[in-house]
Amino acid sequence: MILTALSSAIALLVPIIILGAAWVLASRSTEDREKSSPFECGFDPKSTARIPFSTRFFLLAIIFIVFDIEIVLLMPLPTILHTSDVFTTVTTSVLFLMILLIGLIHEWKEGSLDWSS
After folding, report:
1. How far is Cα 96 from Cα 77, in angstroms, rounded to an integer?
2. Under a CB-based contact definition with an 8 Å cutoff, are residues 77 and 89 in contact?
3. How far apart are CA 70 and CA 81, in angstroms?
4. Distance separating the N- and C-terminal Cα atoms of the chain
5. DSSP per-residue codes, 67-108
6. Which residues contact 100 (CB under 8 A, 6 or more apart)?
7. pLDDT per residue over 76-91, tens digit each?
8. Nearest-5° Cα angle at 52, 46 to 58
């Protein structure tokens, strides 16, 4: 009982201490306009240092990563079919594919896969 209470207290205190230390170390003094502006050989910059980024491209990249991970998770299925219960493996894989298909249909209807607009 005492060991559980002690481990719970440690589990609560360690993240609080780490967050507190990060907050103290990350706090900055008053921001100076010159310090926060980009530096270009001592002169004012000719253009902005921030390049605009298309959020549609970012969303499409995230969708690609999700479906790429799907393929990685489906690759061992032929090997698993030989070593385990076929019904359980097929049921699990069909459920997995149905969830991903529902996600794909949702993305399609939402227009996230339409690059032209």
Report:
1. 12
2. yes
3. 18
4. 61
5. HHHHHHHHTTHHHHHHHS-HHHHHHHHHHHHHHHHHHHHHHH
6. 67, 70
7. 888 888 888 888 888 8
8. 155
**Tally of CB atoms within 10 A around 112:** 14
Residue type, 42: G
Burial class (CB in 10 A: 0-12, 13-18, 19+), 39: exposed
Question: Could you give the 3-state DSSP secondary structure of residue 40?
Answer: strand
Residue 117 in this model has a pLDDT that exceeds 70: no
- Of the chain, the percentage scoring pLDDT greater than 70 comes to 77
More confident residue, 49 or 22: 22
Q: How far apart are CA 92 and CA 88, in angstroms?
A: 6
Instruction: Kindly report, residue by residue over 57-69, the tens digit of the pLDDT.
Output: 888 888 889 888 8
Tokens of 117: 């607009």
